[in-house]
Amino acid sequence: MRELRTSGSVGGLVGQPPGLPGQRNKTMFIDEHNLHLLKSTEAVDEINSKFYGRFQYPQPPIAFDAPSDPSFETIMLNQSIGSWDHSVIPERPNIWVAGCGTNQAVYTGLRYPKANIVASDLSPTSIATSRNTAQKVGVKNVEFRQQSINQVTHWEEFDYLICTGVIHHNADPSEPLTRLASALKPTGILELMVYNRYHRQETTAFQKAIRLLADGADFESELRIAGNIAEGVKLDNFMARFLKSLGGISETQLADALLQPVEYSFTIESLESLLADCGLELVAPCISQFDKDNNALSWNLEFDNSEVAAIYLSRPDVQRWKISNYLMMEKSPMLWFYCQRRDSGRRRVPEERLCEQFLELRFSPSNAKRIIYFKSDDGCYERSARLPAYPGIHPDLLCRRIVEESALQPEKSIKDILQQIGLDNDFSIINKLRLCLTTNAFPYLQSKSEPAKLGR
Fold first, then answer.
1. Domains parsed from the chain with CATH numbers
2. Chain center to CA of 185
3. How far is Cα 340 from Cα 96, in angstroms, rounded to an integer?
4. What CA–CA distances, in Å, run from 4 to 356, 392, 416?
5. 179-205 pLDDT, tens per residue?
6. Is the pTM of this model over 0.85?
7. 76 Cα distance to chain centroid
8. Using an 8 Å Cβ cutoff, are 120 and 98 in contact?
9. Contacts of residue 420, Cβ cutoff 8 Å, sequence gap at least 6
10. pLDDT single digits (tens) 302-333
């Protein structure tokens, strides 16, 4: 389910989002996706269950961690979607982790201890592993269910819904996505990740080659063939460099990258179209740990030419993100976004306005601590006696200065602090500061806003 980036050779056409099998011409997608084993929704569910039963993904981590303040992640989640008064996601939310794999439900239970959480997966093996890990860490607020998203009947139940790396492995991504939309409360937020087409050129090509080489063989045979190719194929191209980069990874990671039974990938343009078909819309980018590692934090480009820069910045957010996706290609962030129902009655706040609000507001630095559970030799997890600061010292000097000044001068707004520093209110700079100081990915500052200050 993790998006393993490839070198990003130029891909195929950007078609409309796939429809139900048999209802639209699937040949128009044959060069863009791995659909060799696509037969029906039920058949793909069955093969995915077997795949993740054999290859447990992700593997248990060395450690789990969570902030000591049980409301902290909910506060930062609200700020990540532009709710500075922390009102969109309630303090005790109902959460569904749809396609939870082996670890995501545990992370979610630790991050949101006040929440009521449902975690589901079609693989009984993944559910058993996840439930066992939750018991080892002491997570008690998660109800585990073994079920396919394509079969659920939730209706307007959840304040927050997490589905990352899942719908693109379904026979028809619109089918589970429609069910996710129905499960959201009208005011709810969906955290969704699908594969970025420009990150999946080599993986998709390799998966399709394996299907032809293995000719219907089982996963064990495919894994053996894939390993032999990775170790000794005579190539000098993007694929060769990609395969070389896989050296030293585990069997599970290799299978997840090279043997996915069914896989779609998207651009922002095709993702937006798919969301619209399912009654959803993009709200804001979500910065993942993978994008942090790759320093791919923003969907906004910078241009030396002032005319091009002005035209680009005049475009609405989603249109800018599409342009960035096409120009940045493999260097663009993951397609990991917060979404909402189109009938939510809540207008999404443009990034420019979010930056204006960010400047107007006063913030207090995080004073949370980090609770850490380390894995012991017997496979259990033990809570560390140490409680380091969370999130700790900011790695960026400018951001660190702003955090320090917010602590020393709590009456000052961010705009006041930046004026003292001598920094211009340039959109590119302010947006990066907002992302790198006030989101779940960088939870350094907490808004002290009152709802009355948030005029649109």
1. 1-351 (3.40.50.150), 354-453 (no CATH)
2. 20
3. 15
4. 35, 28, 41
5. 999 999 999 999 999 999 999 999 999
6. yes
7. 15
8. yes
9. 405, 412
10. 999 999 999 999 999 999 999 999 999 999 99
